[in-house]
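S1.2 Input.
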Amino acid sequence: MNEFLSPYFNRRTDAWGGPEENCFRLLKEIVTETRRALPSDMALMVKLNSCDFTSREGITPPLAVRYAGSLAGLGVDALEVSCGTSQTAPWNMCRGEIPVKELLPRFPEAQRPAVESTLLSYADKFKLTSEGYNLEAAKMIRRVAGGMIVFPVGGWRTLRAMEDVVTRRDTEFVSLCRPLIREPFLVKNFHERKVQAALCNNCNKCLAALANDMPVRCYVNGFAAPLPE
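S1.3 Output.
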């Protein structure tokens, strides 16, 4: 879906590419038909990329804002704001460590030295240095959201940071992904004040597992010794 929305990926010259409204057409039709089919009391949510981080301009925060305004007019109830693409900017999307050792088997042996060198050169650039790295984009989108709830995913790890942004009314909700892979009951434990921070250390080995056709789970101890179920 992101490839249709993004001017970087969408090179079509028919009614599904080119002008902004054409790039938005597929998502618009899917949302419209989904809204028609859903019961009136069932929420319809969309995940929207706010920045492609591509070499040539793709989705940018201002374009994401315009798309969000269009989605608000289609009866979407909530919007999750993310960034990056798996094709060109996976480490912008899931910041933290780059699991070089775990990713290398995915490549032909002859390519591995070059791939390793490239990945190691990115290591410091994508460290997770702050929580909520999609919050600013979400705040921009909220200005056009109308009644649509907007919430950012991206780097949330401590209960204090999440409570602070909701208390300040910067966002209505926050969204979690990687922490729930390691701790499925994390939200319950937050609610019961049993923990104050997620155990996820952003090693991103869960993502490297996907690249190697392995199940999504926490592999913080390495592929040979995953955490027990």
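S1.4 Remarks. DSSP finds eleven helices and three strands in the chain.
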